[in-house]
Amino acid sequence: MNCEHCHRAIPDNLLDCPACTIRKNDKAINEYQLPHLRMVMTGDKLITRKQMGHEIHVQLFGVADKAFCGATLASKHKRDRMRWDPEQLQRLCPSCRIEVERAMRRAVKGFECDFESLPANNA
Ligand SMILES: [Zn+2]
Ligand SMILES: [Zn+2]
To answer: Which ligand is nearest the CA of 71, by number?
Structure first.
């Protein structure tokens, strides 16, 4: 049987197309970040970051073992929280920074706060 969406062959032992299931899941996770990121921007929530070797990754909201860049985060890694602070963002894993900034742009789009003109954060 082939998937009606992406036309890939679906293995006989599965009901749903694995590729589409992953994509749907990723989309749901991406959408889930937006309200949380808005709260980060307004200072009502903090970003969780995890150090893995030399890289500091940003943990996805609602997915404890996954970073914005796609890296898998084990619970043994050192974890702390940060405010939305451009200086701190510079120290993050470059892929995480790109992804979290991209998501933040989407999150605040159409809302009162303006991404570019925001202060580092109220200390
Ligand atoms: Zn499919
Ligand atoms: Zn990362």
So the answer is: 2
Q: At what angle do helices 94-108 and 18-41 cross, to 10 degrees?
A: 70
Q: Is the pLDDT of residue 117 over 90?
A: no
The ligand minimizing its distance to the Cα of 77 is: 2
Say what the pTM is. Answer: 0.78
Percentage of the chain surpassing pLDDT 90? 72
CA of 28 to the centre of ligand 1 (A): 16
pLDDT in tens, 32-54: 999 999 999 999 999 999 999 99
